[in-house]
């Protein structure tokens, strides 16, 4: 510490003594005289004592050697320990006379993640550049180039073209969905046969109409007389033209199959029964056709029946917004009968006219584009996929990727079962040689090598797993508060096995639609083919029920193992019966809800009082003499005392006697004596109700169209 003595009038020695006594004596002090001389700290006491030296011409200013002291001096603050108390801000108190306005809670808006691309779909094509792919995916060019190095592709510039396979791999690695765009520029287009999908309500005669067109009897061989698969076949018309037909099931559970049929078709034949009219699946078929932007030809079937009313069908379709030709629209209407073979030539003429107006052409040369309509597992051939070729030619020996499955085409068969070398546009074929079962609705992609097929299949599997985990994380709900009363909900694990992939999806969707507030149906595994030992082991591990649809009965060893493990197996060939049994099983597993129900009512006729009882028998009691006027009284139930319609008391039954005998129940019309615990306020004319807890189970509901649900 250094002290500088300057000239200033009015400075005294006493002030200097007081000032120096407040500071540390261990510090080094230096005094500057009036002429600049330095006074050491040893002579400081003598300077303070000698008033002649510290005259009125001296003044003291202090400087601290540290930066903090200089900073304090600049700010104009007092030295440490000498701060003056600051004045606090005056806060004005509000005198509110009205209640505060309640504003609704607005949750904070979640910021969208830049990497959340699970729902984003980009269009890719052959020869696109990395720059174009980066703009579509939203990723940086450097990250895309790094992904391509990992894939094994070398690109020098972002303007170099890349193949559509590499573009899909990069897009999947980024995390977006990719849709391939195909161009027929420069290719030779040739006329092709139309693809016609037959749609309509269940049991309106769709398969019978196709049988009449191709002179077969498929409908008679189907389980329950209803179609439960997506069938594809080529019919040679009497005029010499050929038409590819797709037969879709009409049951409500097969909505996804109808949607796939509408997506791959050129024309939709809407079959409506003349005696039944427009039904729920009829309206759904119209919506599928409109969504796919496909023209409709209406076939009013069963016109030979006495109760047929084709004009009513026309009015119903017109009221649903379908522009019929009879009403000034462009939708053709043909009256037919599948059993009597009436009007089939007119239906053929209408279909060929519609196809001619559409001028259907396709590319014959080059790699094929195909669409899977069904997939299954054959015991000797392995996975088989039924596909319709859109354009190009599908050849044996080509490497293909179908969804997440891949393989090398071993055999191509037509729908009659004959082996053929190639599949041409509008031709339904069965492909053999896949390594796995694809999903119905997947596209068939032809690739150049096995390595590229493996890589593309692995990338798609990885993307599917990411999407599945993302969807599962979105479906997780918050843990409820322990103080809140949460309804009890049991989990019902189910394993589904069916004959083909499309049926697996249909049964899975129908079973999941039975979820309700009491039972959560958890489909833990689905598969194509018969029930195996691994299915039994999985069901035993998690206590699941196995549902088999349209598959052969399991071997005796598997049935015995299921019985030993107490595993329920439901096997059916008709969708109606399957859903009905699963619905009953769900209802049995549901915990139900307990409700209070009035089991009986009694009127108080007289009152008896027991007085002077001993201490061992308890205090005095009042007995209500009653007559049961409705239902029955049970001793273990709760009693409610009513007076003029208002509840007076509610409690348990302490005693119930009839003719001086203790009884457990009293039926309607009998008299009894009743004692309610801790109740002695009886009056003649009161009504006593007997309350019991009833466990109300859910109800299985099936609509006319076949849709099922569980009502709690």
Helix content: 25-40%
Overall mean pLDDT stands at: 76
Give the overall shape, derived from the CA principal axes.
Answer: elongated
Give the number of helices. 16
Poorly predicted sequence stretches spanning 5 or more consecutive residues: 1-11, 24-65, 72-79, 110-116, 216-229, 250-254, 477-486
Number of strands: 38
Strand fraction equals 25-35%
What is the structure about, briefly put?
The chain is of the alpha+beta class and 712 residues long.
Itemize the secondary structure elements and their pairings:
Layout: E1 2-6, H1 13-21, E2 30-32, E3 38-40, H2 44-49, E4 59-63, H3 67-75, E5 121-124, H4 130-137, H5 141-151, H6 164-174, E6 177-180, E7 189-191, E8 195-200, H7 206-214, E9 231-236, E10 242-247, H8 255-264, E11 267-273, H9 280-291, E12 296-301, H10 310-319, E13 332-335, H11 344-358, E14 361-363, E15 369-378, E16 382-391, E17 394-395, E18 399-402, E19 405-414, E20 419-420, E21 422-423, E22 428-434, E23 443-447, H12 450-475, E24 490-498, H13 501-512, E25 519-528, H14 533-542, E26 545-549, H15 556-564, E27 569-572, H16 575-589, E28 593-610, E29 621-631, E30 633-634, E31 638-643, E32 646-658, E33 661-662, E34 665-666, E35 671-676, E36 687-696, E37 699-702, E38 708-711
Notes on the structure:
This protein is α+β, with helices and mostly antiparallel strands and 712 residues long. Helix content is 26%, strand content 31%. The strands form eleven sheets. The protein has a six-stranded mixed sheet, with helices on both faces. It has a six-stranded antiparallel β-barrel with strand order 15-16-22-19-18-23. Strand 15 and strand 16 (382-391) form a beta hairpin. It is elongated. The protein starts with a strand and ends with a strand. Residues 1-11, 24-65, 72-79, 110-116, 216-229, 250-254 and 477-486 have low confidence and may be disordered.
